Amino acid sequence: MSDMMQDIESVLFSAQELDAIVARLGAQISRDYEGKNLLLVSILKGSIVFMSELMRRVTLPCEIDFMAVSSYGSSTESKGKVKILKDLDINLEGFDLLIVEDILDSGVTLFNLMEILSVRNPKSIRICTLFDKPERRKADVKADYSGAQVPDAFIVGYGLDYAEKYRNLPFVGILKPEVYEQK
Ligand code: IMP
Ligand code: MG
Questions:
Q1: Ligand 1 within 6 A of CB of 108
Q2: For the chain, what is the radius of gyration of the CA atoms?
């Protein structure tokens, strides 16, 4: 932890603040999906911490599944097209699908994912993102549920990585630019 802390410029959201954000989203989703056939789909790996907390804040019966797509690799800029690395196990037909994502940045990942998933005939499809960087949007995507807006800085922790590291930090912090500018 102390090693990782040296790479953090400042803490944006403490563990307690994140808990409150996720509780609010869980309550909202529990209200909105009453009587529906909710399927939470976590986009690996960034959303696993968010997903595990969020699903425990959803008070309705629901199912979960996971999907992995390639976006950034170890760089901090989006490449364009999305590749499916791990597909869903569940057939989406009849489900009210809620995509659970860590952060909506350029929107390219979710835009492409929405296209892929909507042709599989879910009853409905919505996006729940923990963080949103609206200034960076390139693709036409909007989150139906958003935990918090964040500034145009590279953030890590609570599932979010830089080059696969820092995911296990229990808070969200801004990564020092020199960490990724060195590489
Ligand atoms: P988009 O296609 O540009 O919206 O990229 C979304 C993906 O990029 C997210 O799922 C994250 O994996 C990654 N990403 C974007 N911004 C950050 C950040 O500040 N920290 C860590 N990962 C990020
Ligand atoms: Mg991700």
A1: yes
A2: 16
Note the pTM of the prediction, 2 decimals: 0.94
H helices of 33-170, in order, are: 48-57, 108-118
Alpha-carbon distance of 118 to 141, in angstroms, equals 14
CATH number of 15-151, picked from 3.30.200.20, 3.40.930.10, 3.10.150.10, 3.40.50.2020: 3.40.50.2020
CB 161 within 8 A of CB 45: yes
Q: Ligand 1: does its nearest atom lie under 6 Å from the Cβ of 154?
A: yes
Digitized pLDDT (tens) for each residue of the chain, 183 residues in all: 678 999 999 999 999 999 999 999 999 999 999 999 999 999 999 999 999 999 999 999 999 999 999 865 445 555 557 889 999 999 999 999 999 999 999 999 999 999 999 999 999 999 999 999 999 999 999 999 999 999 999 999 999 999 999 999 999 999 999 999 976
Pocket test for ligand 1, best of 71, 77, 132, 142 (most atoms within 8 A of CB): 71
